[in-house]
Amino acid sequence: MKSSFTVLAFVFLASLAAGGQTVQPALPAPAAPAQAPMQVAPALPGQSDVPAPTTIPGAIVRASEEAAALPDAVKILTAFQPSDVKFDVDDLMDLLRDKRHEGWVLAAYPDPKTAQPLIGAGFSLDLPERIHLQHDGLNPHPFLEPSSADLWQAAGLEPARLDTILAQFHDRLDAWNKKGFRKQIWSLEPQITEADANALLRIGIIQAAYNAKAYCRNFDRLSASQQMAMTQLVYQMGVNLEQFSTFLGLINRDSVGADGTAAARADAKYWHEVQLSLVQSQWARLYRDRARNVIAMLDPNYVVNPAGAEHSVGRVLPARSRHAHRSTLRKASYSSKRHGATARKRAARTRKD
User: Fold this and answer.
1) In angstroms, how far is CA 315 from the centroid of its own chain?
2) Which DSSP symbol is given to 84?
3) Spatial distance between the Cα atoms of 34 and 15, rounded to a whole number of angstroms
4) Is pLDDT of 298 > 90?
5) Do the beta carbons of residue 122 and residue 104 sit within 8 Å?
6) Alpha-carbon distance values, 205 to 30, 91, 198, 235 (Å)
7) DSSP assignment of 176-208, as one string?
8) 339: Cβ–Cβ under 8 A, 6 or more apart, which residues?
9) Residues 6 or more apart whose Cβ sits within 8 Å of residue 91
10) Which residues pair with 105 in a beta bridge?
11) Angle at 238 between CA 237 and CA 241, to 5 degrees
């Protein structure tokens, strides 16, 4: 009886212990904090959501548009390469700055005969674009006669500056007349820099070389000095070279033998005839010094003895006319070297064939 009571008591206590235990529910995981919505800046007026193009393609497009807008003459002149001629353009620039040739003035001044505005080494400031027909049916090379404005642009100068210089020139010409204007040349303030004048001279030479190929169908086969002579003639005479029919007929005569000998090494008699056609011209009588230099360069042996070639030409040139008008100008501070030394220096720098 006692043992049964003990068992019942034990069971009763166990049930109480079991009933006192409760299962704790699992706590929920803490919720992640809510993220603030992304703030998008409003588009500014005129902006779109299309990505802006890169600057390089835009620059290419602008450059292409500017190039397309250039006159054809400017494109041709700016495409010139030194290898297009055999002589050094810098040598011819030095020669044309010489007091015996075009001169060097950094302000617009009137031509002694026509009163047209010139600057630098005789660069014309107001020429219009001209049509120059090719009359030689055997020469496919065309002439190029752009306006002064196109040449100015090809030289890399601002068009607005040309307008200003021309306006000032005409004001002075009206006030002083041609004779009075020329008396004031060396007191004028420069309107262009030395670099500007060099750029204009260079582009003028490039145009002259281009047209020399139109005048002379054998230009590419001439020697360096002969090419320089032809280019000088074109630079100095321009379209007036058309009047030298005897010279042009001789210079375009087929003087290349069957063995392919260059025209520059043709017989001496032929080149003597070419030289004489210029010696007997009015141009040679009026501009004796520059004519002597140009005609001597046509000698196929000029590079061997430049001074001797010029001396030989000088002996047959007609005497200078007492009334010949000196159309060349020189810079007051310019100091020329001895002519023979200049010729030797120029020949040393001239590239041989």
Assistant:
1) 39
2) G
3) 48
4) yes
5) no
6) 89, 11, 11, 7
7) HHHHHHHHTGGGSPPSS-HHHHHHHHHHHHHHH
8) 100, 307, 310
9) 228, 346, 349, 350
10) 120
11) 65
Mean pLDDT of 152-180: 97
Q: How many helices (H) and strands (E) in the chain? A: 14, 3
Which 3 state secondary structure label does DSSP give 331?
A: coil
Distances, alpha carbon 150 to alpha carbons 35, 116, 124, 161, 215, in Å: 67, 17, 12, 13, 22
Q: Given pLDDT bands bounded at 50, 70 and 90, which one contains residue 314?
A: very high
pLDDT at 176 over 90: yes
Asked if the model's pLDDT at residue 67 lies above 80, the reply is: no
Beta strands, E only, 98-232: 105-110, 117-120, 123-124
Question: Domain 70-324+337-349 class?
Answer: mainly alpha
Tokens of 78: 């700016």
**pLDDT higher for 81 or 265?**
81
Please, what is the Cα angle at 264 between 101 and 273, to 5 degrees?
70
- According to DSSP, the β-strands at 105-110 and 117-120 are antiparallel
Residues 6+ apart with CB under 8 A from 235: 96, 204, 205, 208
Task: Tell me the average pLDDT across 159-172.
Answer: 97
pLDDT of residue 268: 82
Asked if pLDDT for residue 80 goes beyond 50, the answer is yes
152 pLDDT band, cuts 50/70/90, is very high
Domain ranges across the chain? 70-324+337-349
117 forms bridges with which residues in the sheet? 110
For residues 10 and 13, what is the distance between their CA atoms, to the nearest angstrom?
5
